[in-house]
């Protein structure tokens, strides 16, 4: 690594896990001073989670899937994304880039709670069919679209299209002389600045280097666009080069201590509030440049520095272990935004050598004012958005960042590309940002757009995979009391975790089971499924109306003194003195399904396999729920199997099995639950939970496997058991009745409707509760929805 100027304080930031314990009401990281000592972060202790008051909170109003905005004749299943967005000056029309579809799209947010697709404009009609939009801004009645037209990395090219917003016709096209990335506009609309990246080829190996290394000519530069009036014909560009004609870096670049100064690749640009200076991130170079807009002179270039982290998960082993450390790595900032004329913030995504899982505030001297350290990693773990598949790479991967003033408060909005959230910070004191809220998004939030004139925040997400039911969206949030009534319930997060006693949050994900605590009416029990290993059970403390439930205790399951791993899909907390739990563990094959009894401290005490004839008829869809009852006849367990057996036919076809197991005798009795018919091609219907309502009534979750706007069935049904058991070797049919249609409750969150409604129970307090499985943030948005459905006697009489 290159050494920075001696006057810079960015060479090493050490973030300790204990010192950076995450509080959802205040993030107080440690910042290294020039001597390497640390400023104390107050008490260094987490405080109980508190949702912001409605007047100061951001409320999710709508989530609009942009595949609904494709042109006629385009298959809605084709990839279509919403990457970078801008808004008309009246705040009513969002314009987003769709690089996958080679178009820009328009969304009408006049009613922010009901966004309406307003069509798109194909770049194929303006240039070449492969032209990709990379960024957009609005100037008066025009949309400025920067377009990558490169046919190869070695021959980069691009243009700026000026599109009339009203007629959606191009009124001018300006050649940019290279491949553009980001565009930013001055507050007075007199200038725009374009980062001309001329990006590297990740599969090219330069002489003496490794694949994807720099340098790779030609290097990048910046285009200044002067906008002297309302007529685009009068607009002109000025090139700001980082190198001389012969490719030699300018002295201000060569002396900056950045990576590979002979091949600068500008990534993102922002213009300061007074309109005098642009800040440009040089992501691959781990650098930051400042440009005077009047003269077009590069006034300073400096390294973004390195960060070393402790208290983070670094090993992809299925567990959430926030005890690892990372050696110092370059920040490699992506997005950048000014806070005021002397300070700006960077999203430290990383690219090829770095990525430090956080964001940083710099001053214009290049000094670090503040750094987030490991706190966003802790935030993800605390709200169930930890992405285990990314821990050996760039973790939460902070990519998008914006600053905006709403309701008289200046905020930073920081987006996690891999954990699908936006963290909100109050910047009233830029030297000590105050975390205020976390907002759930769909996958890959990149465009983060404050709309101050309407107290709105728009987030555009770039990840789109129809086969997984994960689609790109434009989400709309509103700040303040005016939006509180139209906001969804429950608000995110609906589950958070307390500290583990060692300065980190209890890690959790994929809650696929739910049980009442027989002795405590303010407590439920839940567990992560196979998305997390080894297996843990969680105490879920009910916090009351409007507040998230709190995972306040974790019980590790062990067998023979070693950590045990089960795919826990069902859980029942046993009553009585011995207590403990029965787990329903789903197997990869029928024979792998089992009931598992564990003690109150998590020690496996007994395994019960399914009968051989039942196991033989199961594929990968096995045990999905377990509940129990203790009466004068002893202890009995009820087990729900997700789908029908392959061996079932005749009157049992189209049904799923529910079994009753007599713990004392080991006898099984079987019943047939009639499944609804799928309503969409490729869908299936199955059971996800079973709960005892009374001595002869069971409640089960029946659901489809669809999500988002396609979701059609998420229900809790009841069945009455027959007065007489079926004869040995036979299966008794059941009749079902809908008790709770949960789909409207899931849609009421105004987010992406979750697929896996998997946990349901009736608490000791007499209320009904449900929870969704977030699939471990794997091919899913990762959002967990915990629902208090109200008094159970409202549904079960």
Automatic annotation (TrEMBL):
According to the record, the signal peptide region is 1-32
Which InterPro entries does the record match to this protein? Choice_anch_I, Mesenchyme-surface_protein, Phytase-like_dom, Quino_amine_DH_bsu, WD40/YVTN_repeat-like_dom_sf
> What's the domain of life for this entry?
Bacteria
Q: Which residues form the Phytase-like domain?
A: 507-775
Q: Keyword Signal on this protein? A: yes
**Any idea where the Choice-of-anchor I domain is?**
107-317
The cross-references to Pfam families, in alphabetical order and at most eight, read: choice_anch_I, Phytase-like
The reply to whether Magnesium figures as a keyword in the UniProt entry is no
User: Keywords for this entry?
Assistant: Signal
By what name is this protein known? Esterase-like activity of phytase family protein
Q: Which organism is it from?
A: Myceligenerans crystallogenes
């Amino acid at each position: 690594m290159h050494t920075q100027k001696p006057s810079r304080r960015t060479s090493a930031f050490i973030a300790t896990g204990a010192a950076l314990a995450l509080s959802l009401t205040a993030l107080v990281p440690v910042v290294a001073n020039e001597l390497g000592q640390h400023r104390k972060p107050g008490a260094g202790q987490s405080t109980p989670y508190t949702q912001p008051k409605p007047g100061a909170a951001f409320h999710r109003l709508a989530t609009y899937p942009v595949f609904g905005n494709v042109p006629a004749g385009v298959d809605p299943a084709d990839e279509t994304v919403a990457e970078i967005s801008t808004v008309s000056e009246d705040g009513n029309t969002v314009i987003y880039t769709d690089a996958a579809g080679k178009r820009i799209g328009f969304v009408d947010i006049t009613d922010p709670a009901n966004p309406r697709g307003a069509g798109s404009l194909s770049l194929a009609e303006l240039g070449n069919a492969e032209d990709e939009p990379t960024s957009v801004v609005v100037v008066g009645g025009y949309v400025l679209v920067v377009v990558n037209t490169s046919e190869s990395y070695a021959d980069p090219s691009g243009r700026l299209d000026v599109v009339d917003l009203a007629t959606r016709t191009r009124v001018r096209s300006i050649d940019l002389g290279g491949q553009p990335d980001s565009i930013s506009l001055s507050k007075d609309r007199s200038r725009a600045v374009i980062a001309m990246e001329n990006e590297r080829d990740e599969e090219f190996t330069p002489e003496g280097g490794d694949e994807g290394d720099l340098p790779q000519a030609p290097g990048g530069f910046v285009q200044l666009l002067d906008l002297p009036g309302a007529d685009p014909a009068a607009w002109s560009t000025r090139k700001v080069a980082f190198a001389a004609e012969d490719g030699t870096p300018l002295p201000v670049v060569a002396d900056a201590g950045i990576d590979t100064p002979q091949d600068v690749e500008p990534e993102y640009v922002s213009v300061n509030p007074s309109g005098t200076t642009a800040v440009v991130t040089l992501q691959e170079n781990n650098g930051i440049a400042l440009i005077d807009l009047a003269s077009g002179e590069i006034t300073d270039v400096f390294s973004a520095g390195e960060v070393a982290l402790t208290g983070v998960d670094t090993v992809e082993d299925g567990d959430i272990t926030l005890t690892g450390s990372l050696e110092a790595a370059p920040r490699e900032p992506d997005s950048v935004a000014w806070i005021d004329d002397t300070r700006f913030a960077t999203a430290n995504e990383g690219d090829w050598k770095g990525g430090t899982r956080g964001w940083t505030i710099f001053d214009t001297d290049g000094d670090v004012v503040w750094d987030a350290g490991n706190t966003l990693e802790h935030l993800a773990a605390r709200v169930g958005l930890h992405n285990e598949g990314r821990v050996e790479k760039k973790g939460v991967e902070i990519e998008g960042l914006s600053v905006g003033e709403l309701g008289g408060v200046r905020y930073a909005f920081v987006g996690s590309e891999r954990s699908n959230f936006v963290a909100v910070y109050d910047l009233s004191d830029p030297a000590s940002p105050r975390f205020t809220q976390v907002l759930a998004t769909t996958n890959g939030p990149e465009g983060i757009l404050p709309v101050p004139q309407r107290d709105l925040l728009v987030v555009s997400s770039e990840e789109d995979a129809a086969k997984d039911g994960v689609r790109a969206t434009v989400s709309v949030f509103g700040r303040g009391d005016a939006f509180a009534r139209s906001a969804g319930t429950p608000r995110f997060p609906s589950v958070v975790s307390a500290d583990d006693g060692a300065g980190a949050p209890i890690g959790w994900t994929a809650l696929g089971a739910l049980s009442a605590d027989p002795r405590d009416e303010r407590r439920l029990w839940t567990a992560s499924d196979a998305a997390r290993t080894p297996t843990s059970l969680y105490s879920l403390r009910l916090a009351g109306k409007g507040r998230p439930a709190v995972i306040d205790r974790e019980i590790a399951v062990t067998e023979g003194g070693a950590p045990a791993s089960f795919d826990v899909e069902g859980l029942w907390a046993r009553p009585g003195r011995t207590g403990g739990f029965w787990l329903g563990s789903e197997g990869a094959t029928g024979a792998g399904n089992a009931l598992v009894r564990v003690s109150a401290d998590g020690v496996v005490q007994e395994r019960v396999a399914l009968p051989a004839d039942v196991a033989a008829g199961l594929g990968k869809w096995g045990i999905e729920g377990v509940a129990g009852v203790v009466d004068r006849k002893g202890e009995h367990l009820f087990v729900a199997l997700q789908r029908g057996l392959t061996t079932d036919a005749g009157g049992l076809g189209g049904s799923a099995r529910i079994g009753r197991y007599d713990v004392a005798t080991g006898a099984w009795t079987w019943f047939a639950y009639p499944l609804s018919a799928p309503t969409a091609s490729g869908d299936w219907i199955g059971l996800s939970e079973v709960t005892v309502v009374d001595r002869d009534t069971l409640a089960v979750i029946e659901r489809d496997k669809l999500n988002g706007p396609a979701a059609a069935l998420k229900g809790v049904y009841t069945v009455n058991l027959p007065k007489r058991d079926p004869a040995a070797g036979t299966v008794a049919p059941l009749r079902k009745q809908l008790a709770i249609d949960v789909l409207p409750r899931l849609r009421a969150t105004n987010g992406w409707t979750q697929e896996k409604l998997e946990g349901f129970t009736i608490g000791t307090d007499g209320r009904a509760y449900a929870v969704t499985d977030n699939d471990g943030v794997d091919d899913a948005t990762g959002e967990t929805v915990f629902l208090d459905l109200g008094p159970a006697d409202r549904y079960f009489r």
